[in-house]
Amino acid sequence: MSQEILVTPEHRGERLDLFLTSQLPEESRSRLQALIKEGHVTLNGKKMRCCDKVATGDLFFLTKQEQKAPAGAFAEEIPVSVLYEDEDLIVVDKPAGMVVHLAPHHEQGTLVNALLHHWKEGSQLSQGSASFRPGIVHRLDKETSGCIMVAKNDVTHTALAASFAERTIKKTYLAIVEGKPRQRQGKITLPIGRHPVQRLKMTTRRPPSGREAITDYEVLATTTTHSLVACFPHTGRMHQIRVHLQQLGFPIVGDALYGKRADWHRHLLHAWKIEFTHPRSKEKKIVEAPIPKDFEFVPWLIS
């Protein structure tokens, strides 16, 4: 498997290993350094060194052996913060830094590993997905914290999946962004598709390459340098909120892929609330995840 990674002006002069780490957040720096040393990163056919400086317009080729997701998951004793639970479903507060389900390079420490331990080796989780992601109806990025729904049976799984597809489940995210949007609220309707060069990155693209993506937003509080923004996605495109806020001119703080990592260990995006109609009882449910501590770097933003 090979990837092309283009250097844009804001990254010129960076060390190659640091640049690649910012562009490939799913890979560790040590893993990328090993790939560079093994000759898997080239520029114009030339093998590179970790300390090489990158220049605007450089197009690096990264080659690595493609890995398949594991066939099945296993239980691990990992703490789980349950926000809501009944006989049909669970809503968990996923911590930042935890991958939702097994994938290449992420075979342990995932939310699924934790769920399998706490819910009897998966016997109380739906089998509506692949064997490596029992119960999982939707996902959050690794660095995104907050509410995620898990189905306990296949009937609930099917019903929730349909609700997501029909856009009847309302999600509210909180993001701390760089700068201060001029409008207090608005709607972003830019289609989103895969970046033509940086394949792990999404970007705004015209149809048919780009698919419909809609995000409402409201600015809740501001300082001279940052803003707290509530986001209400109506669609579920990969990296949707991160891409839309970047295109608005206000990238999320700590977003290595669409902004700047700086001194942050993750992007400050939190799945704050989820509102849904319960598949069995038909009651309206609203579940809220506590504000994470790293959102409090500007204390008065959070009331």
Polypeptide structure, described:
This protein has 303 residues and is an alpha+beta fold. The protein has three domains: 2-63, RNA-binding S4 domain (Structural Genomics Hypothetical 15.5 Kd Protein In mrcA-pckA Intergenic Region, Chain A), CATH 3.10.290.10; 67-166, Pseudouridine synthase (2-Layer Sandwich), CATH 3.30.2350.10; 172-271, Pseudouridine synthase. It has five helices and 15 strands. The strands form three sheets. Strands 5, 6, 7, 8, 9, 12, 13, 14 and 15 form a nine-stranded mixed β-sheet that branches. A four-stranded antiparallel β-sheet has the order 1-4-2-3. Strands 10-11 form a two-stranded antiparallel sheet. Helix 1 crosses helix 2 (29-37). It is globular and about 60 Å long.
**First-to-last CA distance:** 47 Å
- Major sheet, described briefly? 9 strands, mixed
- Counting DSSP H or I runs of 4 or more residues, the number of helices is 5
Supply the CATH superfamily name of the largest domain: Pseudouridine synthase
Task: Please give the domain count.
Answer: 3
Give me the secondary-structure topology.
Elements: E1 2-6, H1 16-23, H2 29-37, E2 41-43, E3 46-47, E4 59-63, E5 82-85, E6 89-94, H3 111-118, E7 145-151, H4 154-165, E8 170-178, E9 185-188, E10 192-194, E11 202-204, E12 215-222, E13 226-233, H5 240-248, E14 269-277, E15 284-288
Parallel strand pairs: 7-14
Antiparallel strand pairs: 1-4, 2-3, 2-4, 5-6, 6-7, 8-13, 8-14, 9-12, 10-11, 12-13, 14-15
Helix pairs in contact: 1-2
